[in-house]
Amino acid sequence: VIVVNYEKGNVAAFTINGKRLRHESHNDNLQCLLLSRDGEYLMTGGDKGIVEVWRTFNLALLYAFPACDSSVRSLALSHDQKFLLAGLALGSIVVFHIDFNRWHHEFQQRY
Asked: What's the whole-model pTM score?
């Protein structure tokens, strides 16, 4: 899956063959995108200072962390994917605890 951020908060997910899976318009100017190691989840940060977690394949919003003091300029995951670090425009770093298992079990498909 390839995730693309266009201007004015437009986000699209494509397959490796170029087929568009989903397109969403966001109400924030997104500054940074980050995929989880397995590609299931997408984290975004923008000018409004809100870090959000999305499901990559259908671009469904799963969770929004509380707003930060300034815009989010960069995102990083710790090596064990338990903490999400957000670099802010003011120069500070905010660390969020993130648990992907919370959303994994909700969307797990049963065969």
From this structure: 0.83
CB 20 within 8 A of CB 13: yes
Checking if the pLDDT of 104 tops 70, the result is no
Note the pLDDT tens digit of each residue in 39-92.
889 999 999 999 999 998 889 899 999 999 999 999 999 999 999 999 999 999
Q: What is the 3-state secondary structure (H, E, C) of the chain?
A: CEEEECHHHEEEEECCCCCEEEEEECCCCEEEEEECCCCCEEEEEECCCCEEEEECCCCEEEEECCCCCCCEEEEEECCCCCEEEEEECCCCEEEEECCCHHHHHHHCCCC
Q: Calculate ∠ Cα 92-97-99, nearest 5°.
A: 145
Enumerate residues 6+ apart whose C-beta is below 8 A from 2.
Answer: 13, 14, 15, 16
Tokens of 47: 């000018």
β-strands 10-14, 20-25 pairing:
antiparallel
